Amino acid sequence: WQNVCLSDAWLALFYFSYALLGWLAFVWLLRQMKQLIGRIYGSTLAMISQLVCLPLIALGLLLGLLHRWNSWEVFFKPLDLSRAILLYLTKRQYFLTWLIFSGFLFILYWLGEAVLRDFKSRQRFK
What we know:
By secondary structure, the protein is mainly alpha-helical. Helix 1 packs antiparallel against helix 2 and helix 1 packs across helix 5.
């Protein structure tokens, strides 16, 4: 019982590295989208799009994580997917879970923005 994870302990480093890359990609790609919308439609709409996208991403995460939905099922089971989405709009516990996920995504995004901004400013001075 003492050596339960000994043979696969190296996987922890893999999972943390994978999560770090995913977090940086999430921040970088969302920032790219915000910049593109800002160039085309202006900075106000870019900020609004960011405020709308993060809760939608959180909802997509919850639908995939908890309800096991895949993106292509929107074409095959649209009514079932609509019912799952309505749960997050009508049931208190689901809505609070969505709110918490959205809040953490906002925190992760803004922390990532600060890290990437700091990294970018350091690169300019080299």
